[in-house]
Design a protein that fits this description.
The radius of gyration is 13 Å and the shape is elongated. The protein has one domain (14-77). Helix 2 packs across helix 3 (27-47). It starts with 7 loop residues before the first helix and ends with a helix. It contains four helices and no strands. By secondary structure, it is mostly helical. 74% of the residues lie in helices and 0% in strands.
Length: 78
């Protein structure tokens, strides 16, 4: 298990400029990025032992992060 935060700029370094531009110009993209950041931060806190939840809740958080990441990637590719 990785204890490294999965920030969007690290996940998609080739889209760094586009990430910034879309956060500034697209309210839907900004909302997705904010949701991703919140879920990602929650998962990181679990990984480092700062918070504790059930295995099922952690799995749901990981699935939500993956769903958000996929949607964000789809928007970056267009």
């Amino acid at each position: 298990m990785s204890h490294v935060p999965h920030e969007l700029r690290e996940e998609f370094p080739e889209f760094a400029d586009q990430l910034h531009a879309l956060k500034e110009s697209d309210a839907h993209f900004r909302k997705l990025a904010d949701q991703y950041h919140t879920v990602n931060r929650d998962i990181h806190r679990l990984e480092i032992g700062e918070d504790h939840v059930s295995q099922f809740t952690e799995e749901d958080l990981r699935k939500e992060r993956m769903r958000l990441k996929d949607e964000i990637y789809g928007m970056l590719r267009t």
